[in-house]
Amino acid sequence: MAQVNVKSLNKTFPDGTVAVEHLDLEIRDGELFVMLGPSGCGKTTTLRIIAGLEEETSGTVTIGDEVVSGLRPSQRDIAMVFQFYALYPHLSVRDNMAFPLRAAKAPEAEINERVLEAAKMLQLEPYLTRKPSKLSGGEQQRVALGRAMVRHPKAFLMDEPLTNLDAELRADMRAEVKHVQQRLNTTMIYVTHDQTEAMALGHRIAILNKGKLEQLGAPMEVYERPASLFAARFIGSPPMNLIEAEVTNGHLTAAGGMQLLAPEGLKRGQKVIAGVRPERLTVAADGDGARGRVVSREMLGDETIFVVDTEAGLLNVRMPPTARFAEEQAVSVRHIGAAPPAYDPQTEQVVS
Ligand code: ATP
After folding, report:
1. Which of 25, 58, 223, 331 has the fewest CB atoms within 10 Å, i.e. the most exposed one?
2. Pocket test for ligand 1, best of 41, 50, 209 (most atoms within 8 A of CB)
3. What single string gives the DSSP state of each residue in 195-213?
């Protein structure tokens, strides 16, 4: 079993910077767990503490059944892959991948077998005799991944491993990471600030903000019902519309007269902020809804994103490519579908 548990974790750096605060995470055996958040939210520090590269101020980390506090990184049976692939330039791909096993004094036959197994899975067999400088960025990153795989660690820890790659390669490598994780079924903790990457990869996503856990859930849970305005703003592109509204008779009513189904449990007259995904709004030339004017449209081929200026604010609307509204055109925007999540304007937390 290689679940990873983080309990009441705190980290304050000597200069007084609080990087992690009261963090509790229970990462399941075999899970691909993503830590997501903006720069400085504490995700790297948390990963480094799990790896043993940084010491916690208080709290405990358990890997498998073992409390690892005080253990060196090499004693924790984990493998790390960083943003910088850090391959040994003078060693061939084969020797780079064999390195951790040689360091652990594994028998040569076993080393060969494990390197070949990893090379096969990552389609690196043709490159085994090459030096890293003769490989593309994506190939180098695959070697780094292969080097992490050969030891059959209890868990993989990955810190923005794909950041240096161009967009297309990043998408390919993302699929590769997911595939490897599924094949090996090894617990993986993956740190990123890229919400698309988090949504595409994670079995579950932990959103961190200022060293604290903001939300923990499956990608669709986090997408459909962000726990706070911070999470709502962070996940989704274009972002969720945050519309001020008041609870009326069974509805939420926004400025300009837009009506949304009210979620349960709210009081009449209560003021909330409704979180509405762009695909839950629709534009029409006329009809009911908030009247406004098209400010911009972005035609992406498979969809068109309209930004409409209404009394309820600037609204992002995702429409099929057949929707043809011109910039400056007067239109109305209507909500479709189920009741949206509602947030308290003061606490900024979801209330219903
Ligand atoms: P990024 O994506 O930019 O790496 P992050 O979410 O991984 O950000 P951390 O690197 O964990 O964030 O940093 C969390 C906070 O701790 C930041 O405010 C950072 O400036 C601070 N910090 C990190 N390392 C140190 C250090 N050695 N000394 C003092 N403060 C530090």
Report:
1. 58
2. 41
3. HHHHHHH-SEEEEEETTEE
